[in-house]
Design a protein that fits this description.
It is a single chain. This protein is an all-alpha fold and 197 residues long. The chain has helices at 5-25, 30-50, 53-62, 65-68, 74-89, 92-116, 130-144, 150-165, 167-171, 177-194. It has one domain. It contains ten helices and no strands.
Amino acid sequence: MAINLEQRRQFAHLVLGVMLAFYAYLGYSCLYIIMLGIFSLAVFQINKKLKLPIANFLVEKFEREQQKEKLPGWGFFLLLLGSALIILLFEKQIAAISLLVFGVSDSVATLVGMRYGRTKPRIFEKGKSLEGSLAGLLCSMAVLLFIVKPISAFLASLAGVIAEGIKKRFIGIKIEDNIAVPLAVALTLKLLTVFGI
């Protein structure tokens, strides 16, 4: 069975999310992630002219067609930028949990939505499905139930799904999900901790 582009992208997203969560848990500085993001963006831009072997392989295997010539590596850069922001703003446990949830649930939601997504509520962002969102919610809760109380798991998971699915409909601008989802999860977990929930 051949693996399509979106399946490869979501597998990479999952692996990177787990790696970044581990990085956050170890308490390393977000500066290294920012530097990696800037370096990778520069390499992908240079690759447009020079066709560097590893960078070209990554672009060909993981980049969407519309981004290959326009701005390759932009999604990776935003994933790193969002992760750095989470590590900068939150203590390491909350940062690690939110990055882990994002890496796992976003990948599952996308793959389930692509395969089984039929219901497209009007309040959802274009291309998002109820089935994918529910899969992301359940997956997020499954991860969080090992770490936090059930009510916290549900509320943080719901915040992530809302940030992913309906963000543009309410605020009028598109916010990158690589930033919005882990930020929503981390902020919810932080608020729940502050209020003792």
